[in-house]
Design goal:
single chain; alpha/beta; six-stranded mixed beta sheet; 6 helices
Length: 163
């Protein structure tokens, strides 16, 4: 049973085919309608975190003028190196995002993510910023939650077409 699940493949392809997207080896960021789609991959150093933060803020600043949601897919993320600094950086980015209009954040993880990574994101999501946030094990559940919150963009699922 090799390869990524079809829904994950569709999600990844959707993220990487837009002129407004920012794609690097270790992340992709794509605004679509009222939702920002982010995928984080590999092991992260503070240098990667700094570049991600710059690209993230650049796209959010250019694209969103109203309320928006963020989907962060960490299914391919392995490790945050420099844990305390990166947790603080992600918390600061969440605060900045809330100030810029983010009203909801869906984090998609996998049961294959290492336990310490789940702990790191649990710490990140503990901040006191007043936006809705929730963790999901599937794109479909995250999509359903965001649609119920009033956000218009739906993730594309190839698995629905082949089922």
């Amino acid at each position: 049973m090799g390869g990524a699940p079809k829904a994950r493949v569709a999600y990844k392809a959707k993220l990487e085919c837009t002129p407004m997207a920012e794609t690097k080896e270790y992340y992709s960021i794509k605004p679509v309608h009222d939702t920002l789609f982010v995928t984080l991959r590999g092991s992260w150093s503070m240098d990667k975190m700094s570049q991600f933060t710059l690209d993230y803020k650049k796209l959010v600043g250019r694209y969103f003028a109203r309320e928006w949601a963020c989907v962060i897919n960490i299914q391919e993320l392995e490790l945050l190196i420099g844990e305390e600094q990166q947790i603080a950086a992600f918390k600061a980015l969440n605060t900045w995002s809330f100030i810029k209009g983010m009203q909801a954040q869906a984090v998609i993880l996998s049961d294959r993510n290492p336990g310490y990574l789940l702990y790191q994101f649990e710490e990140i999501l503990k901040d006191k910023t007043s936006f809705d946030r929730k963790v999901f094990l599937s794109d479909r559940d995250a999509d359903h939650w965001l649609v119920n919150k009033g956000f218009s963009e739906k993730l594309e699922f190839d698995s629905q077409k082949s089922a």
